[in-house]
Amino acid sequence: MTRRGLSVAGAALLAVVLAGCSSSGASGDPASGGRMSGTGPSNGASIRIVASTNVYGDVAQRIAGGAAEVTSLINDPAQDPHSFEASPQALVALSKANIVIENGGGYDDFVDSLLKTAGTDAAVLNVVDISGFAAQQGDALNEHVWYDFPTMARFVDELAASLSKADPSGTAGFTANAAAFKSDLTRMQGEEQKIRSGHDGAGVAVTEPVPLYMLTAAGLVNTTPAEFSEAIEEDTDVSPAVLQQMLNLLRDKQVALLAYNDQTIGPQTQQVQDAAVSVGIPVVGFTETLPAGKDYVSWMNDNLTALAAALDTGASAGSSPAGS
């Protein structure tokens, strides 16, 4: 399954605006249809990085340090990333970039569309390509690869190499920053294994496959009807029969928790959440972009802490693993 791509609004308009628009790449006008944030220094940075979301923007800033000015095209924690519409400012930022980071896998196709118009020779890091999951999963690709810590480790190595090519004098710093980040990832993989040791094989339900890499690494088994999560992800109505399957899964307490995408809430996902709460199944919210005030590591730490607490709560309340 390929996620619907994030949309590009007014491509012809963007092409026209490029010549007349000026921007530092460090800020964006919310009214333009895109949200951008510059997290790097506006003076003295020799490298310009543009990331499709603030997840990759935050990681890029950590690896690049003061050597780069980083622009995140999507950074509003309240925004549904699926409905993002790129702005003229996004095109200008991409036209000036030295390094572009996209998720890939159909998640943020707007980046590729804008790059064709921007006429840039920036190095493009596609994290799904780096992960290797597309070849393994085919049409069933789960493109939310930032929840997979081994993929993020490979990504920062690629990023450090691209930064070193752009600024050889900073190679030692970029390499050290990548190593420190990978140390955090290794520690968090240890937390996943701790969860696995206590809950291996427990069933979980999801509204969308956003956190599935983390859940799987923690030993949990996704028992959601495939048609349900596919429909929610594709922004189509779930059929009554499939919705009933999902509700029965929860009402019969065949899962230890419900993982809920907090950024794509609708009547049917709300109904599912209510069903879980009504029988005491813990609900854990996950997001696709960084919450306000968080960096990547603190965000993932919070996710792991919430996941472990929910599973412990569900176990003490008597929730049963799938098939028990």
Please name the defining characteristics of this protein.
Rossmann fold, 12% strand, 2 domains, alpha/beta, single chain, four-stranded parallel beta sheet, 48% helix, five-stranded mixed beta sheet
Model description:
By secondary structure, the protein is an alpha/beta fold. It has 2 domains: 177 residues, Nitrogenase molybdenum iron protein domain (Rossmann fold, 3-Layer(aba) Sandwich); 118 residues, Rossmann fold (3-Layer(aba) Sandwich), CATH 3.40.50. Helix content is 48%, strand content 12%. The protein has 13 helices and 9 strands. Strands 1-3-2-4-5 form a 5-stranded mixed β-sheet, with helices on both faces. The chain has a 4-stranded parallel β-sheet with strand order 7-6-8-9, sandwiched between helices. Helix 11 packs parallel to helix 12. It is globular. The C terminus is likely disordered.
